[in-house]
Design brief:
It is a single chain. The chain is α+β, with helices and mostly antiparallel strands. 25% of the residues lie in helices and 16% in strands. The protein is built from three helices and three strands, in the order βββααα. Strands 1-2-3 form a three-stranded antiparallel beta sheet, with no helix packed on it. Helix 1 packs antiparallel against helix 3. The two termini are 24 Å apart.
């Protein structure tokens, strides 16, 4: 986060793991938890912070019915690439286009 966040002397941050979907960023103020944020990277379903073939394999498992996320999970938000409230074959097609370099994903939430 260096270079992106300006810190005051009384504010510190802690990241639960690498920067990927589901990672938790905790902000401390004067040693006490001040705010907590859960990171969502659109298209990143395997929590590595990159949209790649490994995420496409997770989408394939969702489409085949081999995997599903809890309803309130940040992964539901990260997996709905076309904003139709479901993760399905259309989202898999989009992530495949991203992996093949044919399109980009916006990381701005809709």
């Amino acid at each position: 986060l260096e270079g992106y966040v300006e810190y005051s002397q009384s504010v510190t941050v802690e990241l639960s793991q690498g920067v990927g979907t589901g990672s938790v960023l905790t902000v401390y103020r004067d040693g006490e938890i001040w705010k907590t944020y859960t990171i969502v990277i659109i298209g990143d379903l395997n929590t590595d912070g990159v949209v790649d073939i490994y995420d496409a394999s997770v989408y394939a498992a969702i489409v085949n019915g081999d995997m599903e996320f809890e309803e309130a999970s940040v992964f539901n938000l990260a997996s709905d690439l076309n904003d139709d409230t479901v993760s399905d074959i259309y989202d898999l097609a989009i992530v495949n286009s991203v992996v093949n370099g044919e399109t980009d994903l916006s990381q701005i939430l809709r």
